[in-house]
Amino acid sequence: MSVSNVKHAADVDAYTEKHLVPPTAALTHAYDNSTAHGIPMIAVSPSHGKFLSLLTHMSGARNVLELGTLGGYSSIWFAQALKRNGGGGKVTSIEIDPAHREVSIANLQHAGVNVPQEAEVVLGAGLDVLPRLEEEIQAGKRARFDFVFVDADWENQWRYFDWGVRLCKGAGSVVYVDNVVRQLLESGVVGPEEKQEGVVDLVERVGEDGRVYAVVVQTVGAKDYDGFLMAVVK
Questions:
Q1: Does the pLDDT of residue 193 top 90, yes or no?
Q2: How many Cβ atoms from other residues are within 10 Å of residue 213's Cβ?
Q3: pLDDT value at 183 more than 80
Q4: What percent of the chain has pLDDT over 70?
Q5: How far apart are CA 184 and CA 154, in angstroms?
Q6: What is the pLDDT of residues 56-69, one digit of tens each?
Q7: pLDDT tens digit string along 45-93?
Q8: Fewer Cβ neighbours under 10 Å: the N or C end of the chain?
Q9: Do residues 213 and 234 lie in contact, with contact meaning Cβ atoms separated by under 8 Å?
Q10: Buried b vs exposed e over 22-55: b needs ≥16 C-beta within 10 Å?
Q11: How many whole angstroms from its chain centre is CA 192?
């Protein structure tokens, strides 16, 4: 099949989402309320959100760590998946922007998610918050994570990945890093762009990491051409 068919990606998205990911009041409100408060429209697409939800459900996850809350759209998908896994689980999401955090909490509550019992939005920079989470885990105050979703500043993808593996429960836990293909292209690791000085190649690092099995999957849709890295802890 020719790559020229990519031009139909938006039409395919519209058709498949109509039948498989119909809009819900909670998720539509999260998008609309985020936009009304000036939050950039860079959240995952509806299909991507459902894909993450399915992965969470399939893995039987109980505790999810998310880096990059934004308006809480993906957090809602994760929280819904945890309820389908029997309840009692929790999403812990890290957001650096105080205004975004407030909007995300409002969106989660509007979606019927109990905050902070079912979803907690922790304010702070990821690399500042993650060591605190580790301390809480070691002190028995917080459970380890079954599923880690990284959707934050690209230049720290490797550091977030490394922390994600460290905070996971163990064998079978999942670490998922979004926007990996765009980062590879825009940083010049792959493609025609000049390679940025000092860039840390997540894919190369993960390939050398004996703690995980991993793969990169390229994606195309109405939003963009991109791709994600997914790793399973050994």
A1: no
A2: 11
A3: yes
A4: 99
A5: 10
A6: 999 999 999 999 99
A7: 999 999 999 999 999 999 999 999 999 999 999 999 999 999 899 999 9
A8: N
A9: yes
A10: eeeebbeebbebbeeeebeeebbbbbbbbbbbeb
A11: 28
At position 87, the amino acid (one-letter code) is G
Could you give the C-alpha distances from 169 to 130, 175, 199, 234, in angstroms and in order? 15, 11, 29, 11
Token pair belonging to 72: 């809480």
Residue labelled with tokens 């885990």: 137
Alpha carbon distance 77, 20 (integer Å): 15
